[in-house]
Fold this sequence. Notes:
This protein is an alpha+beta fold. 60% of the residues lie in helices and 9% in strands.
Amino acid sequence: xxxxxxxxxxxxxxxxxxxxxxxKPKEGAAAKRPGRMKQFFDIFTMTRRHDPNMVxxxxxxxxxxxxxxxxxxxxxxNWVTGLILGIPLGLLAALLIMSRRAERAAFAQxxxxxxxxxxxxxxxxxxxxxxxxxxxxxxRTQDVIFRAVGRPGVVLVSEGPTHRxxxxxxAERKKLNRILPNVTVHVLQSGRGEGQIELSKITRTMNKYKxxxxxxxxxxxxxxxxxxxxxxxxxxxxxxxxxxxxxxxARGR
Length: 253
């Protein structure tokens, strides 16, 4: 009898396991949907908080697209088709407006914070190779320079006041001209001061530059710059080649 009960329990045990494995994908798929909707709602809320007129602009664009579609439908005596096509096109246009406004709101939140220029470069599309870490740093003032390589050449984006970051830019440009004498170097100063450009317009400005390099040359330029490395700033008055260890400190005295 013991054998029969054991066989009965063993035959019944695989059943709940199969049910568990079959339920997991459904629960996972259902859990992803609220996450996407919540992310969309968070973006909408954040953008509306920064730009209250966004909702009215989205509504105006939606109605304008639908109205144009209806007019075209009436011209061809088929307003129903115009309405069917106008509603999705109007929604698409409204979403494009929201995405533009959301990008501006995101840049406005990080503007003035350390590394904001690097965050702006991270939104570049394909064709650009962005150095994540700053290529030049002023340890005293915390001014930094970020670098991106693309078909227009090398672009340096500074972060700091214009009068204060100028020596750092000149030093980095001289180094690039020495390493890559035939490559164009562009300089953009992020900020809202005179001669500076806003974070939301940095990538747009870079994409307007005229291409002067091929894709193969962009990779070669990036490898050349990566092989040089980035040297950390050394405090003044210290010569690393003449520095000697303190023997008393090494002995514990």
